Amino acid sequence: MKNSRRDKINKILEIxxxxxxxxxxxxxxxxxxxxxxxxxxxxxxxxxxxxxNTYIGVVNINxxxxxxxxxxxxxxxxxxxxxxFDIERIE
Length: 91
Known about the structure:
By secondary structure, the chain is an alpha+beta fold. It has helices at 3-12, 17-20; strands at 25-29, 33-37, 39-46, 49-54, 57-69, 75-89.
């Protein structure tokens, strides 16, 4: 099945893009928790800086007392005092 045809079917069925593709989904709860779904791996981890590789770029998280929790094949949860984050987009 071609991608455009599959995309049309998924749109009709109202399936979220992150479910049928590798596009990451980032959920932020306050300043204390961030969940990254559809990630490829952890590039760097310190208690003040985390770099998470995704299929479309790298998510950089800055803060204090950062911890990686609930790591699975599908998602990763970062907790602590999150100060900022940015995304390095891969072209």
